[in-house]
Design brief:
mainly alpha; two-stranded antiparallel ribbon; single chain; disordered N terminus
Length: 420
């Protein structure tokens, strides 16, 4: 391990540990977490990883521990990039009896498998698996939630930029870092004058006004950005913050629901809770652990994961009912989890909903009581996709929200938000 990367990692860990003193004082896992911290301070990263895994097996809802494990595994992933891959220069060529090269699906599949076995890919898969597992068991693993969205769902918008607008943008960035927000705003605007489609320039222009506490102007810029890029979460989140700081709590609450409809990472739920509090309301998200990954048709990203080094957490019997439900409906479902028309399962629409319906039908487990109440109210789908969201459900979730936005808003206003 080179000195520079370790120094940067150690700086991060020390900052993380200073935070953990406050965060974990009242948590029963505090003593065990201190042992993890001691190992990190001694640069015993792998030993800390293993001890943290054991801690999470005992306290799977402990969000701070998941976030720390995610940080460690992100570090391991970055370090793995320095390890040579023995398969990099390997090629598979198939020839016919005359010596001519021919297409070989099996050969291509072999190369894909070997690529997955590289140290870098295995470390990346472990990192993503950790984030996904955190979202099963914890509703306060805030960093893990954001990292998972950034890794799998955020898209790059600014892919065709010219030199002139980039020069102005870089000047703006330097001024912003120096806290010269007025100058930064001018340079961001110049970049936009050259290229009006420069997403980050528009977003950060709003951020400059926000940093100047000119929330009205920030709202205008963030709203323009959110309207122009309706599937990106950051403009919407910034818009909520600007409304909130301007004291426009009704607008902040309304936009926070739109935020959740784009992607409900835990930071969006925090924003809704803050706005609701100012309006004498308190959200009751009715979140509970999932215990197992969602049923999906598409390729499972657990492939080539070192599962022995993941927290092993027991699954209750009623979740076995859910998991087994996929076998019946899988032949009639698309790769995105939508049930196709023209079969006996079509009324369920979503693979996820079919699994929940079977679980409710065959189990009386007390942890399903909220789901039973939501079904009686006609909101089981909202409860499953919104209150029990997991990133693996993203394709189904997006389809549901886009086709049921009025119901989503009504669910939050009538069911989630309760008067204080």
């Amino acid at each position: 391990m080179s000195i520079a990367p370790f120094k940067s990692f150690l700086i991060f860990i020390l900052l993380f540990l200073s935070f953990s003193v406050v965060y974990s004082q009242s948590h029963p896992a505090e003593i065990k977490l201190e042992k993890v911290n001691d190992l990190l301070k001694k640069n015993k990263i792998d030993a800390a990883d293993k001890k943290l895994v054991k801690l999470l097996e005992e306290y799977p809802s402990y969000g701070y521990a998941w976030d720390l494990l995610a940080k460690i595994r992100n570090y391991q992933y970055r370090e793995s990039k320095k390890v040579p891959n023995i398969f990099d220069n390997l090629t598979v060529v198939t020839k016919d009896s005359l010596g001519n090269e021919i297409e070989d699906t099996l050969g291509e599949n072999l190369m894909n498998i070997l690529a997955q076995m590289s140290p870098e890919k295995k470390a990346y898969n472990n990192y993503i698996y950790t984030l996904r597992q955190a979202m099963l068991y914890s509703d306060n693993a805030y960093n893990s939630s954001i990292y998972l969205r950034m890794a799998l769902r955020d898209i790059e918008v600014d892919t065709a930029l010219g030199t002139k607008e980039l020069n102005y943008f870089n000047k703006a960035e330097n001024e912003f870092v120096a806290k010269n927000f007025n100058k930064a705003a001018k340079y961001y605007q110049r970049a936009l004058d050259i290229n009006p489609d420069f997403y980050k320039a528009l977003l950060y222009l709003g951020d400059s006004y926000y940093s100047l506490e000119n929330y009205i102007e920030a709202i205008k810029k963030f709203k323009t950005c959110a309207d122009r890029y309706p599937n990106l979460l950051e403009p919407q989140k910034f818009l909520v913050d600007a409304y909130y700081n301007e004291g426009l709590y009704e607008e902040a609450l309304k936009e926070s629901i739109r935020c959740i409809a784009i992607y409900p990472d835990l930071s969006t739920l925090q924003r809704l809770e803050d706005a609701a509090f100012e309006l004498n309301k308190k959200p009751s998200f009715r979140w509970m652990p999932r215990e197992t990954f969602p049923n999906v048709i598409s390729k499972d990203s657990t492939t080539f994961v070192d599962e022995e080094n993941q927290p092993q957490i027991e699954t209750s019997a009623h979740w076995d009912i859910y998991t087994e439900a996929i076998d019946k409906v899988k032949p009639f479902s698309s790769s995105t989890g939508l049930i196709e028309d023209g079969n006996e399962f079509a009324p369920y629409v979503y693979l996820e909903m079919y699994g929940w319906e079977q679980m409710l039908k065959e189990s009386e487990h007390e942890s399903l009581e909220v789901a039973r109440k939501m079904k009686a109210l006609g909101y089981l789908d909202c409860y499953v996709f919104l209150s029990r969201f997991h990133d693996d459900l993203y394709p189904q979730y997006r389809h549901f929200v886009e086709n049921n936005m009025e119901k989503v808003i009504k669910y939050y206003n009538d069911v989630v938000l309760e008067s204080l």
